[in-house]
């Protein structure tokens, strides 16, 4: 048993430890995070069994973003919605898979709003590419993102990685061509993809911009609004912004 850590820091253990540091904490956020954790575990289990359970393939519909819904998209969305509702901590849910806001029943309502993409990258499952779940949490009363990891920091400059579809180079703006960006047709959604990533990156000391302003300063006008995002170590993003403003 020498190679097995029997005293590891699990997510549940970490969240409970952090709650104890806050006098008078209600435990609602802890309960919500545990519900999300449970949903993610359930989705992970479904993905692993997808072949046997015949969950690969298209469900037959498209979501609000115009993407074809996979069978696993539908299941993952149902798991997230049911877990979040049953946590008794949420009031409104916004999912990539649903066109309108999901309002939690009055008797099950809490104070948090959750924005989520239950299974990002589902079309890549059959080729074993990376997939995951993305979520953001806001309080109903003040509409702010909740800080959960205040001490994580990024290096001022990251390890350079060159990855771009040069077939679209003719579409890039003149200043942007020098730094490789794809601003013309943004695919990521602001509320449940760009904003959660931007929040995490900024708390770690990085930067997230749409090319003109910080992503977290953008006031969404639509539920499924898209926006460009340039995200990473602070010095790298600053380099890009210099070229973009030239």
In words, what does this structure look like?
The chain folds into 2 domains: 11-139, Fructose-1,6-Bisphosphatase, Chain A, domain 1 (2-Layer Sandwich); 169-244, D-Maltodextrin-Binding Protein, domain 2, CATH 3.40.190.80. It is built from 5 helices and 8 strands; from the N terminus they run H-H-E-E-H-E-E-E-E-H-E-E-H. The protein has helices at 11-20, 28-48, 71-86, 190-203, 234-245, and strands at residues 58-62, 68-70, 90-95, 102-103, 112-120, 132-139, 207-209, 230-232. The chain has a 4-stranded mixed sheet with strand order 4-3-5-6, sandwiched between helices. The protein has a two-stranded antiparallel ribbon with strand order 1-2. Strands 7-8 form a two-stranded antiparallel ribbon. Strand 1 and strand 2 (68-70) form a beta hairpin. Helix 1 (11-20) packs antiparallel against helix 2 and helix 2 (28-48) packs antiparallel against helix 3. The longest helix is centred in the first third of the chain and has 21 residues, at 28-48. It starts with 10 loop residues before the first helix and ends with a helix. One of its GO terms (biological process) is gluconeogenesis. Its cofactor is Mg(2+).
